[in-house]
Here is the input.
Amino acid sequence: MSTEAVDWAMDKAPMPRTEKGKPDTTGRHVLQVLAEYANPAGANTHPSVLRIQFRTGYDRTTVQRALRRLEKAGLIRREGSVDGRTRWQLALEMVRPASDWTDLEREENEYRAAAAERKRRSRSKGVTGAESVTVTDSKPVTVTDAESVTGDVTDSAPSRHALNAQPSRTQRRPNHQQPPVNQLHKDSSSPPAQQDTAAAPEEAKPTGKPRAAKPAKNEHLDAFGAFWLNYPKKKAREEARKAWIAALGRGADPQHIVTAAASYARERANEDPKYTKYPATWLNKGCYDDEPDQPARPHLRAVGDYQPWRNPEDHSSYYEEL
Here is the structure.
């Protein structure tokens, strides 16, 4: 094996291309195998197709097609045969252009810049704030059809006098000072008063809603450790944890479950563990609400000349003896 040939095949040889113009990674792998059997000049390399199959893992057809593509690209040349195997010459004079490395660096920089931009956008989307609402199209409304005040003010119709108009919800009173009534009576030729009916802009209200704090995901799981320590059979912990969460979701008290598990452990202390329930089964069936078993009563035996009690009113036994 020649290090010069292997170094050329690994780094310096041009990248072979497929018919579609994509990098031919299969052909480059086969080229590296040929370089391992070449001399420092890149000649006298003649591994069999079977050997190349063994080194690369490709089938026979794939190896033969890769050799034809390498020969067509000018990276290898035929130099006869040895024992029925083709002898190849590597084109060590062909060198990979330096632009391949610069292109890869540019693509890497573009990828990192795009990733940073996506990360920045994702962070900016998470920050939401309330925007103020500004009314820009509100215009003052001028009353142009109000008639001039003539005669006594008390005799004029209030609905036809501009000064008697009641301000609506969206109107506001004029800023100028209202003249006295007698002045209006004297100067009847004055132009009709104008009424400012511009709608006051509403105050902006924040649209964002305060987010409620989510409950802890592993809430009440601290008591699960105490339950696991007290339960007599420690099997299928993950299933037991799911059953524990389901039991708490049904409203069960964690302390009550732990106490019931300790009581169940005392009941099964001297029993066959084969018949002890799995913790998940015990939780899913709600066995923590079961009443504990009553202790068995001791068996009494007759001592001495003890005879069973007989009813003195029942004389049938006496007749049987006679």
Q: What stands out?
A: The chain has eleven helices and two strands. The first strand starts at residue 76 and ends at 82.
